[in-house]
């Protein structure tokens, strides 16, 4: 596992070099079929990560948000999942709250994950069975036993539609402070114990790491999915997690 983590760190370093080069610079922005933006920075950063990984582990599979599979997904025990810029809209508007995401699955089970913020030079690393670290220092979630005291993050309230919107309003109205606009950085803040709850809906795929603390809760059918309409409820305390689920009443 140490070598796997070292290669993941090198891949994050490679992506960071690319992203710092383009951050707050002028470049072409392309709209994908789903109208989400993509830039040359996304593509170069993903290619840089893929190159690092396959050079070290040529038999591994890589799936990237921009380029898809680099080998048949059933041909490898280890699968790397990459999102070069989670929060492209933040990146193109000069807001340093996007992140580079790296996940590693072994036989379908997530065993490692990284959130890297290359502008602020913050890196969260989670390894199955170990405590999550921020820049090498162990971190932990914080206790929060009442939903009314919880600080909640979601990327945007506009991502909730129909029943999901009604559900989000129910939980939003019960928390102490609802906050918006952090993309993957919200999960990093959750793992670090600065916020208590992250609620998302309508994700195309979710790429995060395992629990940072025995009491933390991630309510999801899988860590890595492709289905539209995927709902995420992540909490640092199982008590507030249960209260959030009750308020949401998601089926």
TrEMBL record:
It comes from the Eukaryota. GO terms for molecular function: metal ion binding; phosphatase activity. GO terms for biological process: L-histidine biosynthetic process. PROSITE patterns: IMP_1. Mg(2+) binds at residues 65, 83, 85-86. InterPro entries: Inositol_monoP_metal-BS, Inositol_monoP_superfamily, Inositol_monophosphatase-like. Its cofactor is Mg(2+). The keyword Magnesium applies. Pfam families: Inositol_P. Keywords: Hydrolase, Magnesium, Metal-binding. CDD domains: Bacterial_IMPase_like_1. This is Histidinol-phosphatase. Belongs to the inositol monophosphatase superfamily.
């Amino acid at each position: 596992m140490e070598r796997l983590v070292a290669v993941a760190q090198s891949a994050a370093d490679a992506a960071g070099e690319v992203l710092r080069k383009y951050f707050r610079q002028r470049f072409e922005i392309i709209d994908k079929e789903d109208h989400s933006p993509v830039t040359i920075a996304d593509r170069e950063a993903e290619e840089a990560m893929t190159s690092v990984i396959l050079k070290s582990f040529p038999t591994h599979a890589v799936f990237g948000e921009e380029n898809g599979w680099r080998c048949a997904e059933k041909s490898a025990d280890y699968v790397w999942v990459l999102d070069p810029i989670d929060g492209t809209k933040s990146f193109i508007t000069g807001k340093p709250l996007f992140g580079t995401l790296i996940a590693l699955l072994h036989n379908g089970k997530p065993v490692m994950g990284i959130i890297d913020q290359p502008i602020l030079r913050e890196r969260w690393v989670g390894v199955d069975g170990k405590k999550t670290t921020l820049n090498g220092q162990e971190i932990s979630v914080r206790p929060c036993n009442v939903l009314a005291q919880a600080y909640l993050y979601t990327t945007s309230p506009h991502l909730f539609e129909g029943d999901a919107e009604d559900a989000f309003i129910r939980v939003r109205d019960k928390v102490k402070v609802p906050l918006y606009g952090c993309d993957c950085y919200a999960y990093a803040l959750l793992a670090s114990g600065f916020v208590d709850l992250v609620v998302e809906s309508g994700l195309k795929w979710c790429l995060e790491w395992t629990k940072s603390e025995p009491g933390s809760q991630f309510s999801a059918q899988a860590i890595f999915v492709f289905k539209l309409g995927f709902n995420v409820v992540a909490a640092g305390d199982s008590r507030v997690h249960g209260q959030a689920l009750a308020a949401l009443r998601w089926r």
